[in-house]
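Pair request: fold both.
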Amino acid sequence: MSPPVLHLKDIDLSFGGTPLLIGAELAIAPGERLCLVGRNGSGKSTLLKIAAGLVEADAGERFIQPGVTVRYLPQEPDLTGFATVLAYVEAGLAPGDDAYRARYVLEQLGLAGDADPALLSGGEIRRAALARVLAPQPDILLLDEPTNHLDLPTVEWLESELKALKSAMVLISHDRRFLESLSDSVVWLDRGTARRLNRGFAAFEEWRDDILALEEREAHKLDRRLVAEADWLRYGVTARRKRNVRRLSRLYALRKKRAELRAPVGSAAMTVTEAQISGNLVIEANDVAKAWDGRPFVRDFSFRLMRGDRIGLVGANGAGKTTLLNVLIGRLAPDSGAVRMGTDVETVVIDQNRESLDPEATLAETLAGRGADHVVIGTASKHVIGYMKEFLFTPEQARTPVKALSGGERNRLMLARALARPSNLLVLDEPTNDLDLETLDLLQEVVADYPGTVLLVSHDRDFLDRTVSAVLMAEGGGAWREYAGGYTDMLAQRGSGVERRTVEKTPAAVPSRPVESGANRKRKLSFNEQHDLKTLPGLIASLEADIGAVRLRLSDPAFYERDAAGFNTESRRLAALETELGAAEERWLTLELLREELEG
């Protein structure tokens, strides 16, 4: 193996006496793509700044091979002092770098080089910072949340661009699909220490859960109840993930039902009549149009949102996703056409700006109010500590002021406060921005368990695949089209993803009902997919039988006293079998849905 081009060894760092990093190590070889993961506040960004030479550790060594070039992307880029975006990007070039590449990358990211940096939006600032670090093609790229505030086409372009680069990379991101696509190794920061997995992010969560499960079993020997309470937060996340297969099964059934409901016009009309009587119709839009400054964002749009639907809106930045969302929920009046709300619809909206929080209020006060210890959720009352735990807060944080929370914890608190309000229509506009992986897991669970209807705008492909039953796609020129299933299903049906907008590109008018092209024709199951679909049921049955046998042995109350080592071995085997069963069930469900779609 090649010697590392960058090596951090035995890194210690404390803030205010509290150790953040304890003997942390990070080594990256030429061309290696490493992702850095961990909870909010675990020190990921700090370790990346140490790697970039921007923060000095209390102890440890930083080695970088002589002559190696490094570029660092911060979470909050600063463009002050530059007259134009191009000047900011060119300032990142080293002597001998190709100056033309700065213009090329800016064009690919849809930015005008002569734009005033002071007038850029948050997403445009992010793209300008990306152009600055990508233009030089450095030996090492250190990227802190590179997908934050980027739209789908930009994320997919960035993926493709990074794959083509020969640079070594260290990535911090909450975007699972992005990490799975790019990483070939993982460093996990947990309680100040760094653990390394020499496999990509796709294998990380199972590996991490195995480590946590082993720690839990070992700690169980000392004090089971104490450990369960102290580590509830981390193990609660693991328990949630094990329910994913059941959730996917329900989601796939919902997708299938929705596809059937949306097929013939006659049956849809019959459903609407029944829905109006029973209250199943949530929103109905008829021939709606909305434009700004002569540019159409919504045109000839007709749509029915039924109770229980989970609809994702996707498209490039500026395609009109938020505009359509606000027209549907009545925040904006359409230029023409009509939008009708169903009966007894109560809406909660979590938008891009998020609600402000009182920095001096405690977490409990924010949720329950001053002097109260219960949160009212609909007609039910729940103790604030119990409600906090549902959103991954520990009881000890009840008296913590909001100003002491991390960014991810504040986002989680805003979600908890908003979702405590009574509602049957949940509207989420870019809910995944700035969330860590644990909060994304929680939000996914909230959406999956929500008993009402969901409208969701997101650029997170994995989150869309895990939560929505249908996708509304911005086809251009104000036209929108519905596709059954998640984002990946939309790709299979459409034949392509969201198109990137360039500086010169103007939206072209397209038919309101796009015609299927050869690129959109349905494919057939591959040989491997057919083989898996045929053999997986047998494997699942075998795994279920093995799990039943192991559980029977572990249920013997005298087993642990008689053979502690054997009990631990069987416990590890049970965890491995359950993980394998979950993966097999998820694979079978995915293939079965695909088969039904292709045959239908």
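--- second member of the pair ---
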Amino acid sequence: MLKLLKINLLFLLFNSITLQGQKELNSQFNQLKNELISSVENSESSQYLKKAVFFFSTKEWDSTLVYSQRNLETSTSITSKDISHFLRGYSFDQKKIFNEAKTEYKAITKDFKIYSLVNMYLGILSLEQQDFNTAITYFHQLENLSDKEYLYIKKSSIIHNLGIAYLHLKKYSKAEPYLIQSLQYQEQKKDTLELVGSYGEIANFYYEQYKDDIAIPYFEKAYLLAKQTNDFTLKKNTTQNMSVVEQNRKNFEKALIYRKEMEQWKDSLNDQNRIYEVAKKEKEFAVAAKQQEVDLLQVENKLKETQRNIFLISAISLLAFLGIGAYLFREKVKANRIIAQQKETLDELNATKDKLFSIVSHDLRSSVNALKSSNAVLLDNLQSKNLDALEHLLQKNSGIVNGAYGLLDNLLNWALLQTDGGYFHVDTHRLFIIVEHVAYNYKALLLEKAIDFENTVSKKAVVAIDQESIKIVLRNLIDNAIKFSKPKGAITIYAEESGNFWYLIVEDTGLGMSEITRSELLKDSALLNKKEHEDVLGTGLGLSLVKSMIQKNNGKFNIESILGKGTKMIVSLPKTTTNG
């Protein structure tokens, strides 16, 4: 029985914790994307390859596979084919089609600039398929590379993956130095989630060898550290590990406690909240019932005392009754006032929700109808093989889908903001780089309307912000600037320095707005605003999200606009101590 529990513990740990090597490589996706974009833009690459790289950068894997295959069928360049095979291997990997991913990676020549990264991916794929011997072969090829060859690869990931592979092969003497070295690296790095994994792995390593005195303290460290995170999977698995440990130690009472705690982590956060509320109400009901019993006993005691002094007890009872009545009356009035306020607030929220859903549904329906009509025309042109018209219609469809996606993305972010469910981390960032990353995704829309776009933000503009929320702000401001700009208009993004702030300004030469509309948009109370231009789709949700995100970043928002001449959206963000 003891041996069976230890074997189950090993596979529980492996299946519950993401491979650190894969996680490290995923964090390098933006650098890899920029490298591939630079490679195709600075060469005479085919349009198929450029489109494949574009869809790769937007993580649209099916489109990446289509255009990379077309490039393979038409290109004669070895470098171009290597890039296509890499794009296809990565896309198949993301779609969990591992055998196809391996085939594509193995087709890449050794002269490929990031061939070491290809071997890293092959090793990780072998780990995913539990082909540990093959994985070890790939990782050993990478173990002694020169610093220059470690492009987009961290040596710590190689060390960790070697330890994992040897551990699953039960080659403990080979696994131990790699796992210890990986643990030391994670302790220096202080990444809580990865440190929980490392503690669990080293604990399981010793536990598999029946070195319980060494293993159990690591299990306890993983358990305590996991409780500090918001990762319910880690909490469940580390708690289950502790339950198995205590069961093996014959401490069934503690094992049962850990088992109950593990079951709690299986529920979602909303389920837990509901369970908590139900338990709270039950407790309040039990306390109230107990209090009622106490009150009844007190009444009985008072009735006994009346036998000795009826007049005195009657007077005291009357005064007590009047006092309790007055107290209950005051409490009832107070409770009714609170309920009325809560009802008013709830009515306002429901009205806002209904209005929001109504407008979102209308705009989504408009987008779907437009897409449906466009697809009908597309099918007609497909039969006639009118390629120019097909490309135009596909671009139009892409714009419609992007608009609907942006609407849903804003709705999701708005919901997360209302429930404090989003991740928020302030750090030092350069505005120029953030603008470049966001603006890249709008190249197609800018080309479609022939809008001249220019990013002149100073590279010295360094601010203390949460990067992801400011990207949401920029996406909405750029999207609005494009939406309200006429064809062949101009959009300029620049920054001005003032005191302790950098002012990031998105200026367009579009439709503009009246002073009344500008004032309404700047009000904090407005979630949805009436549109100045009825022919432009929009809910107003994006601007509400923008104001909330800027406020959360300790910034300010302002609008300057002249109807018919254009608009300036001005975002002030706090500077950092380092500037340059």
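Observation on the second member. The longest strand covers residues 490-498.
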